[in-house]
Amino acid sequence: MTKQNNVVVTPEVKSCINTLISTVVLPSAATAPESMAVIGGFLGFSHNNFIKRLEGSNVNGWIDSMRAASPTRVKSSENYQEKCSWILFHPSALKVFDQILFNSKGKQIVFFLDYDGTLSPIVADPDKAFMTRKMRGTLKDVARNFPTAIVTGRCRDKVFNFVKLAELYYAASHGMDIMGPTKNQTTAKSKSDSNNKAVLFQPASQFLPMIDEVYKILLEKTKSVPGAMVENNKYCLSVHFRCVDEKSWAPLAEKVRLVLNEYPKLRLTQGRKVLEIRPTIKWDKGKALEFLLESLGYENSNDVFPIYIGDDRTDEDAFKVLSRRGQGVGILVSSVPKETDASYTLQDPSEVENFLRRLVEWKRLSSVNPTSAYRVVD
Questions:
Q1: pLDDT tens-digit profile of 65-101?
Q2: Where in the chain is the domain with CATH 3.30.70.1020?
Q3: Residues 6+ apart with CB under 8 A from 20
Q4: Which UniProt keywords are listed (predicted)?
Q5: Which of 64, 114, 317, 378 is the catalytic position?
Q6: Residues of the chain with CATH 3.40.50.1000
Q7: Would you call 114 a catalytic residue per the annotation?
């Protein structure tokens, strides 16, 4: 398999490069190659010094990480230069749409989509994270043309109630609850449920009693923190702090940490203004992506082109899998620079909808006129 990581210099990137050139002070005798070396050094510094992930149970580390996940939008020359550098390495998927089509030539495109912040906007109340009607219509069209999976930290029932499309695969609870139609419905890992769907994999079932117990404890422990919300996602828990005053982040993180000290089989990770509590098993969104590709018959195939779109740190596990396989593309949904293994970016759910719609239109046109299949779709 050949890794597709070609960098396309779009007009937006050219503008950023010009800005960088204008901000670098060079000796008057500097040659053009030397000038580019200086710029390259600047870009390298910016590329390698994005927000660092903080691991471990140190509360101060978690607070720094929580702040890093919600950077202040301060407009400054330094921030603009950093964003220009970031765009150079992670161009817009809309700007390189024709290249993505070219790289997928002769292969089966398979979509993997996060929900919150990707298909729906991030909102204060996670129970009100509804997709727009336009997004649902586009998603339905995508599923008609490509195998499509929702890969989310939400519990399966909740995300299904948001999406309301039975033709999709659902990998809920960070991939620990996978459901969807498969080519081989007789696999030993599968069993039917009341919705006549196949439950493909639930690797954390033994943790359900423990997770329910911790959920009840956290409800009690966090009720004194205004704005904190604990969500039971069946195979994992989410402690939302989007509506919590920043001064209360440390006490909240400490409460969660103290509870988990008594449960070594659970681990704490972080997403966008949310603390995630999951079993310590080696399973994540990347593993879910691989499992679904295997279920579709593409485990060791060169004829598949996975496209994973997500906005959260938990999606990085899937981006890493695609990078390791040298297949498909990872697309990060973000309007600010972030450390990522994704190849491309989109700004927000509206750009995600635009990208998906263009793929649907390309598929429609290619079925009518195959000779135009890999031309740019405006």
A1: 666 554 444 445 567 777 788 888 999 999 999 999 9
A2: 207-279
A3: 39, 42, 43, 81, 84, 85
A4: Hydrolase, Stress response
A5: 114
A6: 97-189+283-372
A7: yes
One-letter amino acid identity for 349?
P
- Distance in angstroms between the alpha carbons of the first and the last residue of the chain: 29
pLDDT in tens, 185-198: 333 344 444 444 56
The distance from CA 56 to its chain's CA centroid, rounded to whole angstroms, is 22
Pairwise CA distance, residues 130 & 134, whole Å: 11
- Quickly count helices (H) and strands (E) in the chain: 12, 13
Helix 349-368 to helix 133-145 angle (10° resolution) is 40
Angle at 153 between CA 150 and CA 158, to 5 degrees: 75
User: Can you give the pTM of this predicted structure?
Assistant: 0.75
- Report domain 97-189+283-372's class: alpha beta
Amino acid at 150: I
Residues in the chain: 378
Given CATH 3.30.70.1020, say whether it is the number of domain 207-279.
yes
Strand order in the sheet with 344-346: 191-192, 198-201, 177-179, 169-172, 148-151, 108-113, 304-310, 329-333, 344-346
Which range has the worst mean pLDDT, 1-10, 32-41, 143-152, 352-361? 32-41
